[in-house]
Amino acid sequence: MSELAEHMARTARASTAPAPRPRDAATLILIDRAGPTPKVLLGKRHRGHVFMPGKFVFPGGRVEPHDRHVPVAGRLDPAIEDKLMRHVSRPSRDRARALAVAAIREVFEETGLLVGRKVEDAARVGADGPVDPFAAAGVRPDLSQLHLIARAITPPGRPRRFDARFFAADAQMIVHRIDGVVHPEAELVELTWLPIEAARGLDIPPVTKRVLSELEARVAAGFGHDLPVPFYRVLRRKFTCVML
Q: Could you give the number of structural domains in the chain?
């Protein structure tokens, strides 16, 4: 049994309280392939957080209602859109789109990095909520360049549970940066770019380690949108993985 499988099954077995319902969430892995060794961006969470305090993670968070209405520069690849609508209640393209937008929005909120495409009329098409800095910078999120790497549901036994989709995008999609977002009192107190092998040596959750391996395999396989996507979860206290 893999480290992730053991961790998720053990957490579920230890749970005695009613499990909260998982909330839709999205994560974006930024990967820099400009050099001979690909590097990924990870952030260290503040030690005061209830969820994964002090761990190195990929930027991400829960989906917000306004994520469905954010103007974008490109739509999701149809293969990814299809995978995002599998194994969900009330699947829709709007829900799939919101997941992708949330991943890009969360990267900005936690790192100050704007991922997308420069658009001349972006400043004239703002949106309610924390995505306004995109419009101010003349940027719109570009969903067409996102890759879906994995999906995982936090097992019962955790104070917060998320149904997280792990997206990836090339670092070349970073078109603007706002400084001062990462600091000692912020959600992420530190950012680091590391080769995948070095990233495994950080204090990272088992799911992050598993996703790093999946990312590495997908890059080696050509990083195509049609590659199968693993979905990790616990059903009836047993770890399961199906391919989307």
A: 1
Q: What residues have CB less than 8 Å from 158, skipping those under 6 apart?
A: 11, 51
Segment 189-200, tens digit of pLDDT: 999 999 999 999
Contact 83, 229 (CB under 8 A): yes
Enclosing domain of residue 141: 3-223
- Give the global pTM: 0.92
pLDDT tens column, 13-51: 776 667 788 999 999 999 999 989 999 999 999 876 666
Strands (E), the chain: 23-32, 39-45, 56-57, 60-62, 113-115, 117-118, 139-140, 147-153, 162-170, 174-177, 188-195, 230-235, 238-243
Residue 241 covered by a domain: no
CATH of the domain at 28: 3.90.79.10
Two tokens, residue 221: 């396989």
